[in-house]
Structures are given as C-alpha cells and as structure tokens.
Prior knowledge:
This protein is an alpha+beta fold. The radius of gyration is 20 Å and the shape is elongated. The strands form 3 sheets. A 6-stranded antiparallel β-sheet has the order 1-10-7-6-2-3, with helices on one face. A 6-stranded antiparallel beta barrel has the order 12-13-14-17-16-15. The protein is built from 4 helices and 17 strands.
Amino acid sequence: xxxxxxxxxxAFLPYMASLLKRIQAARAMVCVRIGKxxxxxxxxxxxxxxxxxxxxxxxxxxxxxxxKLRVGSEVHLDARLKGIRVLFSTEIAAIDESNGIPMYxxxxxxxxxxxxxxxxxxxxxxxxxHMAISLPLxxxxxxxxxxxxxxxxxxxxxxxxxxxxxxxxEQAIHAATIAxxxxxxxxxxxxxxxxxxxxxxxxxxxxxxxIGIPPAMQSHVSRVVAMLDRHQRxxxxx
Length: 238
C-alpha cells in the first residue's frame, strides 16, 4: 500500500510542547546540528516546561559537539518517533550541568515542521474554512466541533475540552455528521484513534478513522480533499 508523507508547520505552543513531551517519554534520540555545521550529534530531551516555553537537552554525543556549543549558538533538531518526524531550530539559552553531566536549556521555537507517514494525503483547513462535525453519543448526548484536517481515511477535529472527557481511544461513534463545502454533508461511522488534550486552551484534538465508509462516499471525500488542497496552495503568499 502506498503512503504519503504529510507536512505541516506548527506554531501553536501547547501542541509543540506536547510533541516534545512524547519524544521525551519515549526517550527517542534527537539529532542535533550546530549552526551551519552539518555534523550530527545525538542527545535526548530531559524535560519540557510549557509554562516557561522552554525545554532541556542532555549532553551532546560525541563530546566534541558539547565543546562547540556556546550560549546563543543556533541549533537544528531532528527527532523521529513512530512514523513522526519533527524538525525545528532554536538556540542555546543556558548551559548547566546535572550530576556533573552537561545539559542545555533552550526556548521552544516559533514554529516546527511536523511530518507523518499516512495512507492518504491529509488536507489542512484554513482559518476561514469552517466545517462542523457532530458526534452522537449514548444517552442522547451530542458533541459539536469543527474539522482541523481531513483525508480519505479519516479526520482530525477540534472539540471543547469538557466534551472530550466523554471520548476514549478505540471508541466507535456511529452516524457522525460532517459538514463539507458546497452545502452538503456526510453521515458515517468513526473510530477514535487519538485524543490530545489542551485544557489550558479549553479544547482537545481528536483524530478519528472512517469505519466501513462506502466507496462512493470515500471518492466524494477524496474530491473534497483535493479541492481543499488546491484552495490552500492558491492562498499561500510568497
């Protein structure tokens, strides 16, 4: 089966911090390059502090990388985790040590490049595009939200944080309604695949996969994805 590598630029600080926390929790290796030097050094993330918009890195390996670092040095980081690749640049804010081992304090970047291998290309929605979603739950509860992106295999939606507590991963949602451009909508079944909470911001991002979507409906969604993609390319200003 062919895969696509989707790429998006992230500028939302809580989302960037959550990605770094996932990398930290997995103790995934981070590739670090210093300035214009293409030499790669290895490190791991020691801590992420969203409140102060900063994080810390362990000593660079090999040690000659540490010897090159100064406060103010520009560094380029490349981290990979389960099909996800995160790239960004920042600078060394402070050089400290813990138990005699050097560590570095860095501010969160202004933006990150987020790449992920997917079965289908995923189209991002612009701020001026509002596509609503309605998720029916047991006991006649209804969760309302809006789409963040959509592909032929699934969606990502933004919902209120308080509502997200009613959802859990691998939960099936039957007869969800998604409003698409052109004053039309589809009703389909979904399975919740991931939930990322941002309680301080009052919302959660919910990734869902279509379940048993009919071929004609999937073709219609693919056309919508292509249309949104064209719209996004036309709206980019250089």
